[in-house]
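Hey forum,

I'm writing up a methods section and want to include a predicted complex as supplementary material. The small molecule is flavin mononucleotide. I've pasted the protein sequence and the SMILES. Can someone with a working setup run it? I'll credit the forum in the acknowledgements.
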Amino acid sequence: MDWKVISGGMGVGVSTHSLANLVSKTGGLGTLSGVAADRWLARMLQHGDPDGRIRNALSNFPFRETAKRILDSFFVEGGVTNGFEHKTLPVFTFRTPKILIDLTVCANFVLVFLAKEAIAAPVNMNYLEKIQMPHVYSFTGAMLAGVDYITMGAGIPLQVPAILDNLSEGKAATYRISVDGKKETAPLTFDPAKHFGEELPKLKRPGFFPIISSNLLADLFINKASGSIEGFIVELPTAGGHNAAPRGKYPLNKKGEPIYGIKDEIAFNKIVQLNKPFWIGGSYASPEGIKMAQGLGARGIQAGSIFALSEESGIQKVYKDQIRKLAFNNQLEIKTDLIASPTGFPFKVVQLPGTVSRAEVYDSRPRICNHGYLTTPYERSDGGIGFRCASEKEDQYVRKGGKIEDSEGRRCLCNGLIAASEITNPGEPPILTLGDDTGFLKHLMKHEDDSYSAADAMRYLLSAPPGKHLNDYLNNAGNKTHTL
Ligand SMILES: Cc1cc2nc3c(=O)[nH]c(=O)nc-3n(C[C@H](O)[C@H](O)[C@H](O)COP(=O)(O)O)c2cc1C
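Reply by user p_vandermeer:
Happy to help. Structure tokens for the complex are below, copy them as they are.
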């Protein structure tokens, strides 16, 4: 656990298996994003899996019939042609169709399998606590492929450790799903042995690192988590993606962004006292940042944006090129948007023409909720459980008991983030997110149209001179042979 660098888990589809593989191979802890993994697998198979690696991974999936059914349902030899409509996939509910469960288990298996290919080093998988419905299926798939660590933020995932314990022992796992308007949670149980009709092999229990934004949360995990946690990722509000809101009442700056104050400062000395390793994320992506983090007692940093803009990330090249160019010229604007995300968390939005950051693009997009990851379960008037999202059609949202004012300005992150990624989403405008700091680009790009690989990013972060064996500069074992 001596990594100085953990690459951030970036959804949807930004933290790819190639990126995680490369970061782990070069001495960091490479992270995958498991968010919407089912959509990723279905699309990649429909795009023909040109190098055959996904089919190879699936041939290693322990439940053969399931893997075959996924291939029969989604694989298109040679890939789909222009104008082809991708297969519509169902969404998660308390009666999730078997095909979506299988797709989710297989997708998480394939991602971890590919990230671990040809390396001895560990890999990490990232999920969001806010997206609870797929967890039990996702964990199972990732663990079947031997995932080493799991990171999770966007909520307080106290129940995860016990679930990882149960799954590793081949037992059923129950996730208690939060339901709006209800005190009690609703249990969602998955028994892999029953589902696949076979006993599961004993699985390695991955280490668990909750992502936290305060030392109070670190205490909470130490005292209240349902099982062991192996460390923390401490994320600051300058990080890309979702951020924790400031505590209590807070002022806004001229752009309408929240201003964080003294109450939001993290007492790192208190986290040190808990004797768990931790890494700090949010504008720390530099050699000096690593030293600073270590000065605060951390093992190192979690870095996202520097890897999101590298060649191996899953953001479509056309957007990466534009963002790198603007940022290189100090012209990139990133807004901490308080209303964009239907989750209610502040969300960093890259201000880019042609994306839903622009009012005209947002206004011209018909609202539709067809992926449903960010829906909130709520208690219906008939006592059942429904699902609503503040960015779905306003009248539907209101019919489901949502408040009209809560739906204003909400962006559909499911469709927008899928559209920004190589998963692709024809007809949907993208949305892009990034952290506040892009100062690393000046060290990685020679001119505004230049690009760089994740290996270049690792070399920069670890201050390794070009052309040398990066491994000479690493403390980390398990990476003896890789040359950059
Ligand atoms: C494009 C992008 C997407 C992100 N998505 C997620 C996510 O899905 N889950 C998560 O825990 N963190 C997410 N993050 C946060 C990163 O994992 C990481 O903690 C953060 O980017 C660190 O700050 P930095 O960008 O300044 O390096 C995302 C960050 C970026 C840049």
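Some notes you might quote in the supplement: The pocket of flavin mononucleotide is lined by residues 8-11, 14, 33, 35, 126, 128, 153, 211, 235, 238-241, 281-283, 285, 302-305, 308, 433-435, 437 (CB under 6 Å). The longest helix spans residues 98-115.
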